[in-house]
User: What shape does this take?
Amino acid sequence: MSLTPEQRGPLTVHVFESFRELGVDAFVTDRFGGVSTGPYDSLNLGDHVGDDPTAVEANRALVAEAAGAPLIFMRQVHGAHVRDSLLPLGEADGLTTVGGDALCVLVADCVPLVVADSRRLSVVHAGWRGLAAGVLHAALAQFDDPLRVCVGVGPAVSPETYQVGPEVAEMFSDVPDALRPDKGDRSRLDLRAVVSHQLRESRVPDEQVTFAQHVTDGGEVFFSDRAARPCGRFALVARRVVR
Assistant: This one.
């Protein structure tokens, strides 16, 4: 099952329906329904990309309303650290909780993930640097049993538009179907193929992984750093709720 559009107040969000069985509300924002202008039009949630801070604050309030709780952010640095949501805001590329916090990961081509079992919930920011550093393995290590984990993989850049140099390609040369030859010494990298490989390495069953069919290519629906700079950031938000 992929993402399903759902209207929440002034926003249309894209919901991971399969997570509702775990009592988890997990959704992805697109770039519509906010107040930002120019290249950040309109639901930019990134406060580090040059947008008007007042507009970002208003956009975050809209998403918090859709989530039903204040949003918990982290300072993403393309690393492998996973931080408990109870700790003060700090550098991390994964957030985890056993409570009802609304966890938020910001992206604009990197892979956003939600990971959950019946007790714990995490969100992960996974670009090539984070995947090479082991951020996904670090997030999964927070869970008791990978066989009971469900994973949702949000919109990300496709290999058709994601060209990398040999130094990046070398890091993923042993991942099946992750690389396609391109011009000269360049390659096309499929980040979602890397995610699939690492999930299997961690023994997460394929049938418990949901991949969004959406991609960020072009930046029309979801912000894409490859398509335009500067650009905004969209979010994957997840929260365990009592229904």
Summary: The longest strand covers residues 234-240.
